[in-house]
């Protein structure tokens, strides 16, 4: 994403060292925490296993992932109480990276209800034509 966004000046990957460092910080947080410990396990256990008939969710994994999700969603909730996007007032690559973890939030039963600021931010990102027009269609459960 950084390479392609860096080909021409734009707000997604601004030509500002501090902004790029902040975007990189959110990339690392998303990879190490939000996606790895929360979103990926919930998506696998509650959606992927259904789609490929791998049996019921492992409730121990779901429990740990739900705890991680709530911890990380609280971080995002507090952050979005202060600003509309992860890095300031405009969408950046950081928003796309973190929002991608939530694309199947409904199907994976991620507990987003208590996090109004996170939901509003995701709605803003999802409403962007570049996101909305390229988002994958919703999968159907295997019969």
Task: Describe the protein.
- There is one protein chain.
- With 143 residues, this protein is mainly α.
- The protein has a single domain, classed as Glutathione S-transferase Yfyf (Class Pi), Chain A, domain 2 (Up-down Bundle).
- 59% of the residues lie in helices and 0% in strands.
- The protein has six helices and no strands.
- Helix 2 (17-51) runs antiparallel to helix 3 (59-80), helix 2 (17-51) packs parallel to helix 4 (93-100) and helix 3 (59-80) packs across helix 5 (116-127).
Question: What are its keywords?
Answer:
single chain; 59% helix; mainly alpha; Glutathione S-transferase Yfyf (Class Pi), Chain A, domain 2; 6 helices; globular; 143 residues
């Amino acid at each position: 994403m950084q390479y392609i966004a860096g080909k021409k000046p734009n707000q997604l990957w601004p030509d500002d060292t501090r902004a790029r460092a902040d975007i990189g910080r959110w990339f690392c947080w998303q990879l190490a925490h939000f996606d790895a410990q929360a979103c990926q396990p919930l998506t696998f256990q509650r959606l992927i296993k259904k789609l490929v008939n791998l049996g019921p969710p492992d409730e121990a994994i779901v429990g740990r992932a739900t705890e991680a999700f709530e911890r990380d969603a609280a971080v995002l909730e507090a952050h979005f109480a202060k600003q509309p996007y992860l890095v300031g007032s405009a969408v950046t690559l950081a928003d796309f990276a973190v929002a991608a973890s939530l694309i199947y939030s409904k199907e994976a039963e991620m507990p987003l209800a208590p996090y109004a600021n996170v939901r509003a931010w995701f709605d803003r990102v999802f409403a962007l034509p570049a996101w909305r027009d390229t988002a994958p269609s919703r999968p159907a459960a295997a019969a």
